[in-house]
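Run: sequence + zinc ion -> complex structure.
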Amino acid sequence: MRRPAGIALLAAGALAAAFVAAAARVALLQDSAPAKEAGGSPMNATSDTALPRYSRSAHDITPLPRERVAELASRLDEESYRITQKAGTEPAGCGTLLDNKREGTYVCIVCGLPLFSSGHKFNSGTGWPSFHSPYDVDHIAEIEDRSHGMVRTEIQCARCTAHLGHVFKDGPKPTGLRYCLNSAALKFYEKGEPWPPESRPVETETAYFAGGCFWGVEHYFQQGPGVIDAVSGYMQGHVDHPTYKQVCGDDSGHAEAVKVVFDPKRISYRRLLEAFFVMHDPTQLNRQGPDVGTQYRSGIYFTSENQAKEARAFIQEQHESGRYKGRRIVTEVEKAETFWPAEEYHQDYVVKTGRPCHIADPWKK
Ligand SMILES: [Zn+2]
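>> structure
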């Protein structure tokens, strides 16, 4: 199961939030303080070598390279540039989106990432557009801001590091948070209006693999560069809502399998097949090492004719490569039937338990 991409940032934010509570009263006053000119952001997550990262809502939030941010920022008007690139603040009550009551989504003015929804907007009386929740927590980076002799939590766009405003702990239910925004950092799309490609989630593809015990297979697929989510589950059996006990009893017909949701623009199906064959031994029939039973069979369950063709060609190629020294590859290739996610305690099992995983890391160079 995917781990939140913004977890490190959120953890930093949580620390900062502890200080924010103490500074809340001051912060209220600060809302009407003059524009902040911090002269650059304390977090420069932008990098040229960043691995792909995805949010819960399947948006590509890989930090943009500095050059790309500079290029996008050069198209902004003066006010948006000052606010997003120089951590500026617009005067209270003047923002164009303050009184906007239309239904829709607010995206980053620089890179287009969706940041807030009209359903979370409320009138805070501060003079700045306010929201109690973000569109997706992974889209907002929280940074400790110690400028002006105070400790506040700055919010930035997680993808391009544009300065957006601050978040305070004096908001309404359900979060108790007040995301205080600058209108000039946002662009609004009314409900029904088409979004540009940079605002849309990635178009994903799904693949399924069974390679013995799913704990390690899920663990390593999750780390694939371009993999959005890997989930442990059961499939190709004949019982609905199977439990681990039923599957282990070897009478439900299911295989322990891993669902892999990926971004085909970042990683190919072929690369996933290669990784799968590193992670398990496709010549073992109905077992993987010490795990014996049909639930541990080797299988590729395709979701399209293209995947079926690629999987069969790949297996043929492996046969011919001589890599398996005459041993027969027994991997079954079938159309994917219903995938039943496994019980919660099986998800992220390797990370949760800290148990060492003995299968080979397929991404190691
Ligand atoms: Zn952005």
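>> summary
DSSP finds nine helices and 17 strands in the chain. The domain at 205-353 is CATH 3.30.1060.10 (Peptide Methionine Sulfoxide Reductase; Chain A).
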